[in-house]
Design goal:
Structural class: mainly beta
Number of helices: 3
Strand content: over 45%
Shape: globular
Oligomer: single chain
Order of helices and strands: EEHEEHEEEHEEEEEEEEEEEEEEEEEE
Length: about 350
């Protein structure tokens, strides 16, 4: 039986001891925020308290005017309330994806993890008629004992249209990188249009597996970066093991789903560790009824990584081809004939007839 990294959406009611700690932790952050606010005579504003910021030319490729990292104590009170509420949802279309690889040069069992918060353009730009607007992404990563491991905080100022020459950009991706040891973590994130206060509240459980060169692991997928349709903000410029999965100038990030436009090809990579050199792989697209609609070629690539065991990358390319528009699932199966171990990785796929603002 293969071991997988897991990413399970969950409400606070199913978070166990992690969820129970959220209220106490965020109450503490709220108290700190109030103390900071009282000192200056007003509620803490993330546009005022930052760790770092940078201004970009408004005529640049992604139309990002300003990008800021926000101190947790400066989270607006409404954001703290949402993060501690135990609920999920909202009027924005927000999703969260992740993947991981053993850290480069690390011998302590730590994994290099990328979290990606996605917000669709169709929901985010609704009601905006041009000019600058701000989007805030705030959140926490907690360990299974409720300890704060990391925080996610990014405030971006954008100018519409986001991507000149693209009528319907896909949306915003905020890429957050961190190092995690094997274990179970709880992630809770709010993405908000600060002017309208419309938001998406996302909760998920992230399970980082133990790394054993003798135990096969197939990790969540990485999807080719589409900078011509997504606005991408990186919370740091650090190059991690996940970010290093590249082919020339093509970069890959975790994604909750992939949208394939007619006439375009999108590459997907599933990374695995602990597989034998004779591991075989297949890929297929199935429809909502589980019926095979396409068989896809898989290219295998071996990479060295920390710990001395080989990292296998299973590449496949998605092309709409003769498929009708609709929802599909990509299934990439790997089997080691010597040991009989097998496993399957999955990714939601949407085939589109033309440009769209949802992905």
């Amino acid at each position: 039986m293969i071991e997988h990294g897991h990413f399970r959406p969950a409400g606070c009611g199913s978070c166990g001891p992690v969820g129970a700690v959220f209220t106490d932790l965020l109450t503490f952050v709220l108290v700190v925020g109030v103390a900071v606010s009282s000192a200056v005579g007003q509620e803490a504003d993330p546009s005022d308290t930052t760790l770092a910021s940078r201004n970009l030319d408004s005529g640049s490729e992604t139309q990002v005017v300003r990008q800021q990292n926000v101190l947790p104590a400066a989270y607006p009170h409404r954001i703290v309330g949402l993060l501690s509420s135990g609920s999920t949802g909202g009027s924005l279309d927000g999703r969260l994806a992740w993947s991981a690889l053993p850290s480069m040069g690390a011998e302590d069992g730590q994994w290099s993890v990328e979290l990606v918060v996605e917000v669709s353009a169709s929901s985010l730009l609704r009601g905006h008629r041009g000019g600058d607007f701000k989007v805030g992404v705030f959140g926490y990563v907690l360990s299974s004992d409720g300890s704060l491991v990391d925080h996610i905080s990014q405030l971006g100022t954008f100018r519409s249209p986001w991507v000149p020459g693209v009528r319907d950009p896909a949306g915003l991706r905020v890429v957050h990188r961190l190092g995690l040891h094997p274990g179970t973590y709880s992630v809770r994130v709010v993405a908000e249009d600060t002017a309208s206060q419309r938001y998406s509240l996302i909760t998920a459980e992230l399970v980082v597996p133990e790394h054993d060169p003798r135990r096969p692991i197939l990790l969540p997928p990485l999807v080719e970066e589409a900078r011509d349709r997504w606005v991408i903000l990186n919370t740091s410029e650090e190059v991690t093991a996940v970010a290093s999965v590249a082919n020339g100038d093509r970069r890959f990030h975790p994604a909750s789903r992939v949208f394939v436009l007619r006439g375009q090809t999108t590459e997907v990579v599933f990374a695995g560790t602990g597989w034998g050199i004779n591991a075989q792989s297949t890929a297929r697209l199935v429809d909502g009824n589980g019926v095979d609609r396409a068989r896809l070629a898989v290219r295998r690539e071996e990479r060295p990584h920390a710990g001395g065991s080989g990292l296998l990358l299973f590449h496949t390319s998605l092309d709409a081809g003769d498929l009708t528009s609709g929802s599909f699932e990509l299934l990439v199966s790997v089997e080691d004939p010597a040991s009989g171990v097998s496993g399957t990785g999955t990714l939601a796929v949407e085939v589109l007839d033309g440009p769209t603002g949802v992905g």
